[in-house]
């Protein structure tokens, strides 16, 4: 067979999670990495603020505190065994990255520099603790580059610009994937013992988003089509500070360095919503506070944005008010140059896209769709589980944003995603190696390409008069309006209905490009199909959850309901119908409490 | 900050000529300024027009002052000192210039046999120029 | 405001020669050029092909030539061009596969040739290897590179010979050579001390001007040249 | 199939701006001087040895005002620009100020070259 390849392990996606697992998998098994983008274009590269690890380089800190903060941040929906695992591996994994050459910013003593981030606290005082290890404001970029470089060093086999369209499962065991080579338009079969999905998130479902064009949720959509459920899809994080109208992210590190959010009356409103940590409360809380302010007409000029202010005079004023100190005990006073050297890219973004110089002017920001807490359900070793009893699907793994371990529960803390991709990427790789040594290759299905060809054929042959871009726009706007920061029964029902209509209309989309080589229209239409599927399962999962928890905030059920809803949502798409089920949350040490910051 | 010494980076034509180009560039400027100062010393300000001065500056050959008002060439202008100066300028200038041509040509030639051919050609051109120039200087 | 977008078109399956298409687009002054391309693709001509991902200048997918200079399409706003005629062409010096998509293989081959990874075989300490903020600053500028190829494909030396390793690869080498923790600097200098290494750079500065990450590319190259010339890395 | 990488004259349309121009001038001037010196030495040789007409003709060309204006431009530009490159090569740190350095170079160039041409032209006009 032409275009047939065989590897022990196939990694799908070359972001942080994919590269980390490839690095470990390729040491002991034949491994190939398939990515629809050239690896260094992956979304991990855009992560700015830092990776969380309780190194304690600046102030006292402990992995146990990190664990608790994460549990609390997750609004107690995170599985505590997984969280403890992740936080205990954080310190060694950051050192490991340093040993791979990652150029972290440094403290004057030459150790890795750290800065405060939302929700990370000293468990005794409740005050913010600097836990985010950073490399200026391009931490993700440095992680991505470093991991890619190490993969080169280790001669990992890459198939760049190969987009995976289907996963092959035969006799209940993973057998490989089908991918399209973008440069030729040809389909390839990759026969494998284990497949690791690390395809990232799906923030393009929403209109205002910090996510890349290519963040179309391919991984979850592919597995949904193959009967694998998705977990906790209703929990999607809205980051408080996206550039107004564009959604481009302004890292929480800005607030970590002392920046504050300001409303139309010129006041720092987070005082009222989170009296202790103020602007460094966790993201769901800050985003909601912004919405409430805007709803009460205190958005800037009555519009739907707030100011994020990192001018030295503002920073110094509020730092003095909070009594913030440097590690050496001197008062916290910053200069414009210091802000510029710690946050160069943010300054650049603001200048380029807003025409605003953040050292002398405040930046207009609004909440922006940012991160998928939900995804393909897995256990701590990245093994995909397919029901409420946690039955493992042999050979199938997921890691990174595409997976749901669940270490982030209902709300992810900043810096924990980079940690997640490193830790769970690594252990997925290791487990896949072990698995591949124990088993042989599963036989491929008789017609491995059939399902893919059928999907592509449908896209190619439709003769309707709908335009994909119209459908995409409508989906994004309805999801932003009704399945955004605040949700209601009414709105979400509308959204479900609308998305279902759009899915019908999607069948009538006409394809203009009939070429084979780099048919980007075909691909983006296929991706739109994925987004529609994910929009639907998100809206349905959200509609069913009758409580407010973490990122899922309902006006009609404003309280958390531990009695009925201390459980993860599982959602399937069977024959085009959405089905739901629930599984319990793992609680080890920390009993649910009310969440105040 | 520590300085790390790199034992030997490796020696090749491009390395050598890169350094030579810079050294010769500076040397040419120094030689030219010497020539110009020398000309003033010898009374160029009243006896020479600018063009001649500049020609002398870059090429202190008595031929270059023939059509000026300088009455007697021999004592100041045409002696062994200026001949040596001239030869140095010729050596540095011609070598620098010929190497420059080589660089320009090699920018556009990637097939290595063509490159070898041109290198050879330029080398012989350089040799020819040097001999010719030395001869002209000595004979003038 | 209406702007005219003139785009380089080439479809390898049907065209012998490339041509230009014109699209009239209604644009806001704050729109990115990438937004215009997306608009054309979504509403006027779905066959228009280009690469893109992050849309905010950080992934390096969409290096193109806009009004004659290399830029990321997502990092140029309509208002900064101050012109209602916008020409978008593929970057120069790499084979064009389709429309604005070029074959990046030789670019990445050069990248791969400079040992583009951290080398230090000494056993690492239990914690991090120490590095002072000054030592970090020494190479910080070049760590920002996103491998977009804006620099290399703006360099006349690269246009004239594809074998020239190009500024991007030298920038990558610089990032490691000047990292106090790395141990393969000498080897990298040896690789760059080559007819197709640093000596094809004639300080033309197009690369520095084109770099969307504002890396001082020519300076990095200059520091590498100097290190080669004096045999020391400071 | 993909279009071959083929830059050709398209490179000339690249809007590299000032820095690219300085390089183009440096290259053109370098080549011009090299060709000029080559021909000049050759012509001098012919004239000296054989009193050849070719040599004399060449010398007449060289001594014409227009040629002088041209060759001084080329020499002074090449020398100054070369000096800039050498300085930047020696202290790469200064590349941070490359724009300022280039402006300074233009100013110096215009002063030196302007003065030279001015005196030359004045002399020619006054017929001395
Ligand atoms: C702007 C921004 C800032 C952030 N800042 C932070 C931060 O400061 N700290 C933090 O902890 N987290 C941060 N995050 C979150 C974090 O960066 C991401 O969640 C994380 O990088 C995801 O990594 P990943 O490896 O799962 O996926 P990605 O890095 O997105 O990689 C996905 C990979 O999958 C490939 N792929 C996708 N679909 C297919 C397919 N069908 N076939 C083949 N390949 C495919 C892609 O090519 C890509 O290589 C930020 C996120 C964003 C968007
Ligand atoms: C006046 C003093 C001079 C100085 C300071 C000088 C300096 C330089 C320098 C630094 C370069 C290298 C440019 C680079 O690497 O990009 C160079 C190139 C060159 N020089 Fe000179 N030079 C001088 C005189 C000359 C003379 C007299 C000639 C002719 C005989 C000449 C011909 C060339 C040529 C042909 C090049 C190559 C051009 C290129 O690579 O683009 N130079 N010069
Ligand atoms: S140095 Fe700048 S222009 Fe060159 S590849 Fe890197 S980021 Fe792009
Ligand atoms: S444009 Fe090219 S010649 Fe050197 S300074 Fe930049 S690499
Ligand atoms: S789309 Fe990522 S750099 Fe432009």
Major β-sheet annotation of chain C: 5 strands, mixed
Q: Name the quaternary structure.
A: heterotetramer
Q: Which bin fits the share of residues in helices of chain C?
A: 25-40%
Q: What's the CATH architecture of the largest domain in chain A?
A: 3-Layer(bba) Sandwich
Ends distance of chain A: 60 Å
CATH superfamily of the largest domain in chain C: Alpha-helical ferredoxin
| Broad CATH class of the largest domain in chain C | Mainly Alpha
Which ligands, by name, code or SMILES, are bound? flavin-adenine dinucleotide, protoporphyrin IX containing FE, iron/sulfur cluster, FE3-S4 cluster, FE2/S2 (inorganic) cluster
Q: CATH homologous superfamily of the largest domain in chain A?
A: FAD/NAD(P)-binding domain
CATH architecture of the largest domain in chain C: Orthogonal Bundle
**Shape of chain A from CA axes?**
globular
Strand order, largest beta sheet of chain C:
2-1-5-3-4
Name of the CATH class of the largest domain in chain A: Alpha Beta
Distance between the termini of chain C: 53 Å
- Strand % of chain A is 15-25%
- Kindly report the average pLDDT value of chain C: 94
Give the uncertain stretches of chain A in residue-range form.
none
Describe the global form of chain C: elongated
Task: Briefly summarize what is shown.
The complex is a heterotetramer of chains A (597), B (140), C (234) and D (128). With 234 residues, chain C is α+β, with helices and mostly antiparallel strands.
Question: What would you say this structure looks like, in words?
Answer:
The complex is a heterotetramer of chains A (597), B (140), C (234) and D (128). With 597 residues, chain A is an alpha/beta fold. Chain A has helices spanning 16-28, 63-73, 80-99, 139-153, 218-225, 253-256, 270-273, 283-295, 312-322, 336-342, 344-354, 416-438, 450-461, 468-482, 489-506, 520-544, 562-565, and strands at residues 4-12, 31-35, 51-52, 114-121, 128-133, 157-160, 162-170, 173-181, 186-197, 230-231, 236-243, 260-262, 306-309, 363-372, 376-377, 383-385, 392-398, 403-404, 486-487, 553-554, 567-574, 577-584. Chain A folds into three domains: 4-49 and 78-91 and 138-233 and 377-438, FAD/NAD(P)-binding domain; 237-369, Alpha-Beta Complex (Flavocytochrome C3, Chain A, domain 1), CATH 3.90.700.10; 450-558, Up-down Bundle (Methane Monooxygenase Hydroxylase, Chain G, domain 1), CATH 1.20.58.100. In chain A, helix 3 (80-99) crosses helix 12, helix 14 (468-482) runs antiparallel to helix 15 and helix 14 (468-482) packs parallel to helix 16 (520-544). With 140 residues, chain B is mainly α. Chain B has one domain (13-139). Chain B is 74% helix and 1% strand. Chain B has six helices and one strand. The model of chain B has no long low-confidence stretch (mean pLDDT 81). The model of chain C has no long low-confidence stretch (mean pLDDT 94). Chain C starts with a strand and ends with a strand. In chain C, a hairpin with a 2-residue loop joins strand 6 and strand 7. Chain C is α+β, with helices and mostly antiparallel strands and 234 residues long. Chain C is elongated. Chain C has helices spanning 33-44, 78-81, 105-112, 133-143, 156-160, 166-177, 185-192, 206-210, 217-230, and strands at 2-9, 19-26, 63-66, 69-72, 85-89, 96-98, 101-102, 232-233. In chain C, 34% of the residues lie in helices and 15% in strands. Chain D has a domain at 64-126. In chain D, helix 1 packs across helix 3. The longest helix of chain D has 33 residues, at 18-50. Chain D is extended. Chain D starts with 17 loop residues before the first helix and ends with a helix. Chains A and C meet through helix 3, helix 4, helix 11 and helix 14 of A and helix 1 and helix 4 of C. Strand 1 (4-5) of chain B pairs antiparallel with strand 8 of chain C, so a sheet runs across the interface. The complex binds flavin-adenine dinucleotide (FAD), protoporphyrin IX containing FE (HEM), iron/sulfur cluster (SF4), FE3-S4 cluster and FE2/S2 (inorganic) cluster. Protoporphyrin IX containing FE sits between chains D (26-27, 30-31, 33-34, 37, 78-79, 82-83, 85-86) and B (21-22, 25, 28-29, 93, 96-97, 100-101, 103-104).
């Amino acid at each position: 067979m032409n275009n047939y390849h065989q590897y022990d392990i196939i990694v799908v996606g070359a972001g942080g999670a994919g590269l980390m697992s490839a690095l470990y998998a390729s040491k002991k098994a034949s491994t190939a990495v398939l990515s629809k983008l050239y690896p260094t274009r992956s979304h991990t590269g855009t992560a700015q603020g830092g990776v969380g690890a309780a190194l304690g380089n600046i102030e006292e800190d402990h992995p146990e505190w990190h664990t608790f903060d994460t549990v609390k941040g997750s609004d107690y929906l995170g599985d505590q065994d997984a969280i403890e695992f992740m936080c205990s591996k954080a310190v060694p994994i950051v050192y490991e990255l340093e040993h791979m050459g990652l150029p972290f910013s440094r403290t004057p003593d030459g150790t890795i520099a750290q800065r405060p981030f939302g929700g990370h606290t000293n468990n005794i005082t409740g005050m913010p603790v600097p836990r985010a290890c950073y490399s200026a404001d391009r931490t993700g970029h440095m992680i991505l580059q470093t991991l890619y470089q190490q993969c080169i060093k280790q001669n990992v086999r890459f198939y760049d610009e190969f987009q995976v369209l289907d996963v092959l499962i035969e006799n209940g065991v993973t057998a490989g994937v089908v991918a399209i080579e973008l440069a030729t338009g040809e389909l390839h079969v990759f026969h494998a013992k284990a497949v690791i999905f690390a395809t990232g998130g799906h923030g393009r479902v929403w209109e205002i988003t910090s996510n890349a064009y290519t963040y179309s949720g391919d991984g979850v959509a592919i597995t949904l089509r193959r009967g694998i459920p998705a977990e906790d899809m209703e929990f999607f994080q809205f980051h408080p500070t996206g550039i107004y109208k564009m959604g481009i992210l302004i890292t929480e590190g800005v607030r970590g360095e002392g920046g504050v959010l300001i409303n139309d009356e010129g006041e720092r409103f987070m005082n009222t919503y989170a009296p202790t940590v103020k602007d460094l409360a966790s993201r769901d809380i800050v985003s909601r506070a912004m919405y409430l302010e805007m709803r009460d007409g205190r958005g800037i000029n009555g519009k739907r944005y707030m100011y994020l202010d990192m001018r030295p005079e503002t920073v110094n004023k509020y730092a003095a008010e909070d009594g913030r100190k440097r590690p050496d005990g001197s008062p916290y006073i910053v200069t414009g140059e210091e802000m510029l050297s710690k946050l160069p890219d943010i300054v650049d973004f603001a200048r380029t896209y807003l025409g605003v110089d953040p050292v002398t002017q405040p930046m207009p920001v609004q909440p922006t769709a940012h991160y998928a807490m939900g995804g393909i359900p897995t256990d701590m070793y990245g093994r995909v589980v397919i029901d409420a009893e946690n039955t493992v699907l042999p050979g199938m793994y997921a890691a990174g944003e595409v997976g749901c371990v669940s270490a982030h529960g209902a709300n992810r803390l900043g810096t924990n995603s980079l940690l997640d991709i490193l830790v769970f990427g690594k252990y997925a790789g290791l487990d896949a190696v072990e698995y591949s040594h124990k088993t042989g290759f599963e036989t491929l299905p008789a017609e491995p390409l059939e399902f893919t060809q059928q999907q592509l054929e449908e896209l190619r042959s439709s003769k309707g008069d709908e335009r994909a871009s119209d459908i995409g726009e409508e989906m994004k706007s309805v999801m932003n309006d009704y399945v955004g920061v605040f949700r209601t029964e009414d709105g979400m029902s509308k959204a479900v209905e609308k998305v279902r209509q759009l899915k019908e209309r999607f069948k009538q989309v006409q394809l203009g490009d009939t070429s084979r080589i780099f048919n980007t229209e075909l691909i983006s239409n296929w991706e739109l199909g994925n987004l529609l599927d994910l929009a639907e399962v998100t809206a349905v999962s959200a509609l069913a959850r009758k409580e407010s928890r973490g990122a899922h905030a309902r006006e009609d059920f404003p309280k958390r309901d531990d009695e009925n809803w201390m459980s993860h949502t599982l959602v399937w798409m069977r024959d085009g119908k959405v089905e739901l089920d629930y599984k319990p949350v793992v609680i080890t040490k920390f009993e649910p409490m009310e969440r105040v910051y | 900050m520590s300085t790390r010494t790199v034992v030997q980076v490796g020696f090749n034509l491009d390395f050598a000529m890169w350094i030579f180009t810079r050294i010769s560039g500076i040397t040419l400027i120094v030689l030219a300024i010497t020539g110009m100062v020398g000309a003033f010393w010898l009374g160029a300000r009243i006896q020479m027009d600018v063009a001649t001065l500049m020609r002398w500056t870059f090429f202190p050959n008595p031929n270059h002052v023939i059509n000026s008002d300088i009455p007697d060439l021999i004592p100041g202008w045409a002696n062994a000192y200026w001949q040596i100066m001239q030869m140095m300028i010729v050596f540095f200038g011609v070598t620098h210039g010929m190497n420059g041509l080589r660089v320009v040509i090699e920018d556009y030639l990637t097939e290595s046999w063509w490159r070898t051919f041109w290198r050879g050609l330029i080398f012989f051109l350089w040799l020819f120029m040097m001999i010719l120039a030395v001869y002209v200087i000595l004979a003038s | 405001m209406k702007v005219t977008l003139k785009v380089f078109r080439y479809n390898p399956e049907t065209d012998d020669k490339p041509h230009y298409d014109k699209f009239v687009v209604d644009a806001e002054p704050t729109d990115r050029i990438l937004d215009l391309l997306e608009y054309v693709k979504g509403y006027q001509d779905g066959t228009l092909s280009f690469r893109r991902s992050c849309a905010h200048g950080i992934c390096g997918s969409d290096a193109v030539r806009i009004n004659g200079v290399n830029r990321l399409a997502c990092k140029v706003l309509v208002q900064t061009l101050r012109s209602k005629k916008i020409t978008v062409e593929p970057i120069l010096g790499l084979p064009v596969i389709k429309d604005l998509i070029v074959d990046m293989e030789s670019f990445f081959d050069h990248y791969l040739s400079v040992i583009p990874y951290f080398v230090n075989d000494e056993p690492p300490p239990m914690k991090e290897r120490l590095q002072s903020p000054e030592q970090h600053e020494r190479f910080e500028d070049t760590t920002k590179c996103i491998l977009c190829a804006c620099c290399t494909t703006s360099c006349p030396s690269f246009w004239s010979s594809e074998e020239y390793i190009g500024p991007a690869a030298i920038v990558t080498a610089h990032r490691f050579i000047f990292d106090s923790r790395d141990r393969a600097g000498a080897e990298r200098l040896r690789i760059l001390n080559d007819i197709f290494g640093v000596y094809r750079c004639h300080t033309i500065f197009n690369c520095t001007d084109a770099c969307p990450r504002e890396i001082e590319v020519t300076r990095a190259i200059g520091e590498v040249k100097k290190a080669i010339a004096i045999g020391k890395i400071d | 199939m993909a279009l071959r990488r083929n830059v050709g004259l398209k490179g000339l349309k690249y809007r590299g701006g000032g820095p690219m121009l300085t390089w183009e001038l440096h290259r053109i001037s370098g080549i011009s001087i090299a060709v000029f010196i080559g021909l000049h030495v050759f012509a001098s040789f012919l004239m000296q040895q054989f009193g050849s007409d070719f040599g004399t003709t060449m010398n007449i060309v060289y001594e014409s005002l227009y040629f002088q204006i041209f060759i001084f431009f080329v020499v002074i530009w090449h020398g100054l620009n070369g000096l800039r490159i050498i300085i930047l090569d020696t202290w790469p740190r200064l590349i941070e100020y490359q724009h300022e350095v280039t402006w300074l170079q233009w100013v110096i160039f215009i002063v030196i070259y302007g003065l030279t041409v001015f005196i030359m032209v004045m002399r020619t006009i006054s017929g001395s």
